[in-house]
Amino acid sequence: MSSHVQFSHEGGISRIVMDDGKANVMSPALLASLHEAFDKAKEKTGLVVLSSGGRHFSGGFDLKVIREGTREEKVAMLRAGAELALRILSFPRPVISVCTGSALPMGAFLLLCSDVRFAAEGDYKISMNEVMIGLTVPHFAIEIARQRLTPAYFNRAVLLGEMYAPQEAAKAGFVDTVLPPSVLSGIVEQTLQGLSAIDFVAHAETKVRARKATIDAIRAAIDSELVV
Question: How far apart are CA 207 and CA 115, in angstroms?
Fold first, then answer.
């Protein structure tokens, strides 16, 4: 795992923090480190908290790879991101995301796949803005958005690439709760205490039932589209 992703486990909570000192761009290296962190979390018990350091949650996929990489490199990166989103969506215990800065496409996907999503108030945006930068939205991403965004926002977010401030992102369905930064940490910790009482076996089994159609659709999209 690179120094850009920190993992810790204490008191039944695994904490994964993205912090590359910049925009937490989802490069192949950062994605590999996140997969490694979730491997570690799966070996532990209890909840998982995904957050970031710096001014960004994530700036999305590495555009240099998308625009200059070989087809194999582009597909490998997109597949790593899609697989990460899918494993969060189907993770056997609750995954809580805490967004304190901009979350652009791949960052937004991670929020959409998490079970509980907090965001800090602030001057930043959350968006699936692929069409604004000349990219076609992958099938897996459309399925991720479909299962969480509200009907009123789904087409606007996916087809128009609208960018939302935190409060409107909550209305759209990207996050659940928006709080002032001064109280965010305390509320997150209170929520973690409550979620720790969940029966994780029942949670995992219910999650599979509730999300089966979406999980199957994303799996099919990855295996049909993200191949060399």
Answer: 10
Amino acid at site 97: S
* N-terminal to C-terminal alpha carbon distance within the chain: 26
Tokens at 84, concatenated: 């990460």
Helix count (H) and strand count (E) of the chain?
A: 9, 10
Percent of the chain with pLDDT strictly greater than 90: 97
Q: Is 202 helix (H, G, I), strand (E, B) or coil?
A: helix
Q: Is the dihedral of CA 159, 161, 164, 169 positive or negative?
A: positive
The pLDDT-based confidence of 3 (bands split at 50, 70, 90) is confident
Rounded Cα distance between 77 and 149, Å, is 24
Distance CA 127, CA 56 (A): 13
pLDDT tier, 15 (very low <50, low <70, confident <90, very high otherwise): very high
Q: What domains appear along the chain, each with residue ranges and CATH number?
A: 5-225 (3.90.226.10)
With beta carbons less than 8 A apart as the criterion, state whether 161 and 127 touch. Answer: yes
Say how far apart CA 33 and CA 30 lie, in whole Å: 5
Segments of 106-211 assigned E as strands = 116-120, 126-127, 163-164, 177-179
Q: Where are the alpha helices (DSSP H) in 91-138?
A: 105-113
Q: What are phi and psi of 62, to 5 degrees?
A: -70, 105
